[in-house]
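User: Predict the complex with glutathione.
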Amino acid sequence: MTTFASPVDLEAYGEYKIPDTPGPLYRFTGRITADTAEQGRYHLYGGWFCPWSHRVAIVRSLAGLDGVVTMSFVGDERDARGWAFREQYGPDPVNGFTLLRQAYEASTPGFDGHVSVPALWDRVAGRILTNDSHAMGIDLATQFHHLATPLIATYPAALAEDIEQLDRWLGPAVTYGVGKAAGPGPARDTLLATFQQLDDRLAERRYLLGDQVTEADIRLWVRLVRYDAGPNAHRTINPGLAAYPNLWAYARDLYAIPAFRDTTDFNSFTAPDAQVPDWSEPAGRH
Ligand SMILES: N[C@@H](CCC(=O)N[C@@H](CS)C(=O)NCC(=O)O)C(=O)O
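Assistant: Here is the predicted structure with glutathione placed in the model:
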């Protein structure tokens, strides 16, 4: 049995392209409910490099689900075949697939959409339930309380509206804006103005919504931890995250939490000649 995909080969296969097909981009929209939240039922296919996967990996740990929902990682390079299982991070422990595409094809015969991570596989149904990290983050945080005690409840009902409201601001400004901020256009000014607003906000509170870590912090943090390693590796956007002392200390404060630190693989997202700041410097925030 073949366990791993052959090496990335752009000459033979060409570049991965996002298919130009009509309809929703991410077609798997299933949800986990308390009655389908079962021990060992779900498997998370993720990528270390991927900020969306990273969000869900952090939630999984904070929800106490490391032993309830299994997780594995695709390699961080691809050709037209899409994400694949390679020696770098190990095989597919659920289906023995060599290409993530096989999981999508097993779910929808003739699948021609995005082969994306994160993807949540349902072992009972034998198919992908969802490839929407937003739904995964919420469901892992809220539907498993009969099976596991969360270390931190990241999506409390009382804060759900505040979390989504922050997302309507930080989504365009940071999540989607950071990749455009090195280029021409207004994205850079918007990003840096947002960093300044966050820095002011974090002078007064430990986390975005007060004294408790929530999904809002997780969504922002996966972008902050990549900022000086990827989008701002050559300091083309600004001199670095450290230009915003409260924001930078907040980001290090989160990095000190094992669920954040242990799900972070700097090698998977750091540009070869990037100057990465010292994330382990004590944050001194209480
Ligand atoms: N909306 C998706 C985005 C996931 C996403 O963009 N994943 C990237 C890797 S970080 C990917 O696999 N892209 C391949 C594709 O979209 O075709 C989510 O929130 O889960």
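The longest strand covers residues 42-47.
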